[in-house]
Amino acid sequence: THILLSSIRDILGQHIWQAGAQKDERVSRLDVTHYKEVGTEEVLKIEERANEIVRMNLPLHKQFVDRNDAESYFGFTLYQGGIPDGNKLRLVEIPGIDAEGCGGTHVDFTGEVGYIRIVKVERIQDGIIRFNFAAGKSAVEFSNSQGTQLNEIREKLGEDPIRAFESLNNSIEETKRAIEAGIESSSLKLGKRELKIIKVKERIAESVSKSLNHSLGIVISDEAIRVVSSIPDISSIELMRALEKKGLVKGGGNSRFSQGKVLKENLSLKEVEEAIANHSR
Would you state the torsion angle of the CA atoms of residues 219, 222, 223, 227, taken in this order, to the nearest 10 degrees? Predict the structure, then answer.
């Protein structure tokens, strides 16, 4: 935690103060005070700074010193982990990097840490940011696991991992734009069941219909229609036929899923509702 805390302070500012810590063999955590969320670029800079200190292979000086002398020289940042009792203080110092009063176990040189990887950064409450991190063998295992996941993505998508993520980001951005452009929705009672009717841009229509896999819904766009039913006594294809009778759409499918083309220009939710309601009477 000494290396990471010092690195966080270097990148985010001297106002950083340790608010808590928990060490584990796989993933540890360090909580610090900070007034806003930490951006991706800042996280990368903190991780790079931490590993720079590791690569420097600096010695750790561990000794018991007079508490007042230590306070006069280093200030109260010594007490990041809390204020110990007694007049003597166990000082752990990485020369030029960090100095803290600490009674825990430590390596003799920073290089013995091997590698530091920040796994996750989250705001756990106002003014407190949590850094979840791995060190040494666990950090290497975490990085290897990410590499394996990237290879699996490449195999499944047939793309280079970087391109795969670019494609994913593009899809996310398209979805955001589509949502911002507006989603219309309504519902209709079919007996004791509720039929969801949703109108969206075609670019997200398929993903929206997939989200209805375990319910009952109709998703329309300006170009296409998708009907989903997980209800045994309500057939997807029957709902499609009801809309076809009114000349609104044309399609096919089965009892669970149907899809087709929208024939009526500017098809509205009300027209869909009325066609289904009349068919169900």
Answer: 10
| The pLDDT of residue 64 is above 80 | yes
CATH number, domain containing residue 257: 3.10.310.40
DSSP code at position 140: H
Domain count, the chain: 2
Contact in structure between 132 and 28 (CB atoms under 8 Å): yes
**In whole angstroms, how far apart are CA 167 and each of 16, 75, 208?**
37, 50, 19
Where would I find the beta strands (DSSP E) of the chain? 18-22, 28-33, 61-66, 88-94, 98-101, 116-125, 128-135, 184-190, 193-199, 216-220, 224-229, 249-253, 257-262
Range of the domain at 43: 2-154
96 and 52 housed in the same domain: yes
pLDDT tens digits, residue range 81-92? Answer: 666 666 788 888
Identify whether residues 84 and 221 lie together within a single domain: no
Domain of 141: which CATH number?
Answer: 3.30.980.10
Residue 206, pLDDT score? 82
pTM equals 0.53
